[in-house]
Write a structure and sequence with these properties.
The protein is of the alpha/beta class and 459 residues long. Helix content is 29%, strand content 26%. The protein has 13 helices and 23 strands. It has a nine-stranded mixed β-sheet with strand order 8-7-9-10-6-11-12-13-14, with helices on both faces. Strand 1 and strand 2 form a beta hairpin. Helix 9 crosses helix 10 and helix 10 packs across helix 13.
Length: 459
């Protein structure tokens, strides 16, 4: 008798009895793959028998003090909210070669040096290959209770966890792990979803912290169904170019901390090294006396960062103006260009505009609007802007410069790095109690006035 099969979308998990060219749920093309059909009732009965828990009254639940495992890597602990929570599940994603396995081995070494037991499950490398990589990262000295195993069978992995009882388990990666009771191939929607669910239940019931490494698609999202991100407690993404030396670790979901914090690392011969002063690094190669270069202060959680915005404006060669951004939202750039055309009077409709955030960081803070608008105007007019100046402010559709949050933190960071001026919204200046010397504050009510003040050939 022929086994029943279904077609599952490898992007969102939508199932269909026949192959479809386009997924009706997530609208992705050519994402359906054939999988063997498994009766949901049989899996449900097995899951209930394994993990059965009686309901309790909310008033009877005892709140225990949240205990975290310190990784001794300050940048990672900041992103996690202070360390690894016992029983939590952390998903780490990023492009191939960006440093996911590297930081996992470094975390393993730090935890074992602190007296904790760690199980590193490598499904893509042999034990010997993992040992060689650990030696290269100066983590393979044989100290501490660090166990490594090359295994992809989920039933055997759970047996190792129950036998060794480690505080932390690292799965590298979830796409190669498979559950024998499911006949579909490893990496399919069914396998990824089921394996992640079983591992999460194991972590919650045993109190073992779990770190899962996941591959990403060409769009930059975790490969597999989106439900995978809903199952886990924390989702971390590595950003940055794999050929660059700098890496940015960002939390896009965190049940035990803020999602606004980032960690900045530098890839070296001994693995990922912490960057203590990211602002100085991002501005270290900034060119002098060049139009289109502006420094803005953005806020990532509780940390202010100074980054350079670069803009290039040139005549469109084929009659169709292009807009390209790297590290800045494309739709936001289109809005700022429209404001420059309508409110300031710049004729940008026939110009190609390219905006880049130096250092590989992605900006979501609206306080960078003024800096981006001024960099585009500077590049278009070929005018230099005020030197040693930081620009702050959100731009409204009427061309007004709107107030932003945490102005004092941003100003202190600018003064710390030797900047002499700060252009900021007028409303922020009224409510600001800043008396330090050495930094001139220039309030502006509108984009036009900010452009008139900043557009000088010489400072």
């Amino acid at each position: 008798m022929r086994a029943k099969t279904i077609f599952s979308c490898q992007n969102c998990g939508y199932q269909s009895p026949k192959w479809l060219g386009r997924c009706p749920d997530c609208n992705s093309w050519n994402s359906f793959a054939e999988e063997d059909f498994v009766t949901p009732a049989a899996k449900g009965r097995e899951r209930v028998s394994l993990y059965k828990e009686e309901p309790v009254l909310l008033k009877d639940v005892e709140i225990k003090e949240e205990h975290r495992l310190k990784t001794e890597i300050a940048e990672l602990d900041r992103v996690l909210g202070g360390g690894i929570v016992l029983g939590s599940v952390i998903l780490v994603g990023g492009d191939p070669g960006i440093g996911k396995s590297t930081i996992s081995l470094q975390v393993s070494n730090k935890l074992t040096e602190s007296g904790h037991t760690v199980l590193y499950v490598s499904g893509e490398e042999s034990v010997t290959q993992t040992k060689l990589r650990a030696r290269r990262l100066a983590t393979g000295k044989g100290k501490g209770n660090l166990y490594i195993v090359n295994q992809t069978d989920l039933s055997l992995i759970t047996e190792y966890v129950k036998k060794l009882k480690p505080q932390v388990v690292i799965i590298d990666s979830i796409q190669v792990v498979f559950e024998p009771s499911i006949s579909s191939s490893p990496g399919s929607v069914s396998q990824v979803r089921e394996c992640a669910g079983i591992l999460t239940q194991l972590a919650k019931t045993s109190g073992t912290s779990l770190i899962i490494i996941g591959h990403v698609t060409k769009e930059g999202t975790i490969a597999g169904p989106r439900v995978l991100e809903h199952i886990v407690d924390t989702v971390l993404y590595f950003e940055g170019d794999r050929f660059s030396t700098y890496r940015i670790l960002r939390a896009v979901k965190n049940r035990f901390g803020s999602t606004n914090e980032i960690g900045v690392f530098q890839m070296g011969s001994a693995g990922l090294e912490e960057v203590k002063n990211p602002s100085e690094i991002f501005l270290s190669e900034r060119p002098k006396d060049v139009s289109g270069s502006v420094v803005v202060s953005i806020l990532e959680g509780s940390r202010p960062l100074l980054v350079e915005i670069q803009a290039l404006v040139s005549k469109a060669g084929f009659g169709y103006a292009r807009r390209r951004t790297q590290g800045f939202d494309y739709n936001r750039l289109s809005l700022l260009v429209a404001v420059l055309e309508k409110r300031v009077g710049l004729h940008l409709e026939a110009e190609d505009i390219f905006v880049n955030v130096a250092g590989g960081i992605k900006i979501e803070d609206p306080a960078a609007d003024l800096g981006v608008a001024l960099s585009v105007a500077s590049a278009f007019r070929e005018q230099l802007l005020l030197s040693s100046t930081v620009f702050l402010g959100e731009i409204g559709l009427a061309g007004e410069v709107r107030s932003i949050s945490q102005v004092t933190l941003r100003i202190n960071e600018a003064q710390k790095l030797g900047f002499k001026r700060c252009v900021l919204p007028k409303n922020n200046f009224k409510n600001l109690n800043y008396k330090k010397e050495g930094l001139e504050l220039i309030p502006v009510p509108s984009l036009r006035e900010a452009l008139d003040i900043a557009s000088l050939v010489k400072a």
